[in-house]
Design a protein that fits this description.
Lambda_DNA-bd_dom_sf; DNA binding; 68% helix; 434 Repressor (Amino-terminal Domain)
Length: 63
């Protein structure tokens, strides 16, 4: 798996919709969708927020 797939799986396992995750991160739903589709990649500070909100490690997201 890769980042986009990992993000989607972890988000769903955490019971967040794209909109809920976006709200928690201060992003738009479109941005989260773009991450999950591989259209965009998050900046380092956003990755850090993702690990905090989703209670996962960088490895969980990036492996």
């Amino acid at each position: 798996m890769n980042f986009k797939e990992n993000l989607k799986v972890i988000r769903k396992n955490s019971n967040y919709t794209q909109q809920q995750l976006a709200d928690l991160l201060g992003l738009t739903k479109t941005t989260v969708a773009n991450y999950e589709q591989g259209i965009k990649e998050p900046k380092l500070h956003t990755l850090e927020k993702l690990t905090i909100v989703l209670k996962c490690s960088y490895d969980d997201l990036l492996k």
